[in-house]
From TrEMBL:
Alphabetically ordered keywords of this record: Methyltransferase, Transferase
Classification via PANTHER family: TRANS-ACONITATE 2-METHYLTRANSFERASE, TRANS-ACONITATE 2-METHYLTRANSFERASE-RELATED
UniProt name for this protein: Trans-aconitate methyltransferase
EC number annotated for this UniProt entry: 2.1.1.144
Pfam family, one: Methyltransf_25
Amino acid sequence: MRWDPGLYGRHAGHRGRPFLDLLARVGHEAPRSVVDLGCGSGELTEVLARRWPTAQVVGIDSSAEMVGAARRRTALPNLRFQLGDLRNYEPGADDVLVTNAALQWVPGHQGLLARWAAALPVGGWLALQVPGNFSAPSHALLRSHAGSGQWASRLRGVLRHDDAVGEPIDYLGILLAAGLEADVWETTYEQVLPGEDAVLDWVRGAALRSVLDALSEDEAAEFEAGYGALLREAYPRGEHGTVFGFRRIFAVGHRTG
Ligand SMILES: C[S@@+](CC[C@H](N)C(=O)[O-])C[C@H]1O[C@@H](n2cnc3c(N)ncnc32)[C@H](O)[C@@H]1O
């Protein structure tokens, strides 16, 4: 799938907040080696490099557009970016492993997570955040619109299902089974978005990308017109903006010894 760092970054404040909330629960004082899997355009990986200036920090992402943007925007001596698939990541060497808003794109990621957790060294931390909003109107309407009329055959198999992520209890089970101390929670952020068609603008940066990629320019515009009307009804614009509630799931594991 083709990512657009500019579009994704339009709601950087709201998108960055869960990362900071996640990181606040990671207690390592001075890791030597930190990895950010599915690092995107690197703004948040940079937060890791600034928090731990003596650590070597690596951001890995499978999107050439994202890795290119990350390399262009930052030049800290302890930070580098690598093009790669997180499914090929070999765990065991890093003291802190972070993956934020990426595993929802990786079917069967629970198996990977179990492997990473099992390989976490003593003193190590593993922290992940995934969106828990696949049954929210934004996603449910996307799936129903993509499955209706002319779109059903054009978009078959393009969208993720509503089980793209597990429930908090699933992640808790994985971390505990690996012998880690676990801290798992969920938060719904009541985000107030500015502007016209605010929710459409948000999903264009992420959930809608695979649909837009699969359609011609004219088809994409037509699809967006129909989906946008449904979103306006589900998320009416109010006096202060458009309220877009967003549930997120967090899991932090720590190997104490
Ligand atoms: C929603 S963005 C999140 C980026 C960043 N972690 C953040 O929080 O801003 C998801 C990122 O996961 C990356 N991604 C998805 N599947 C991946 C995979 N199998 N291997 C590596 N990166 C992947 C995408 O390229 C994209 O940059």
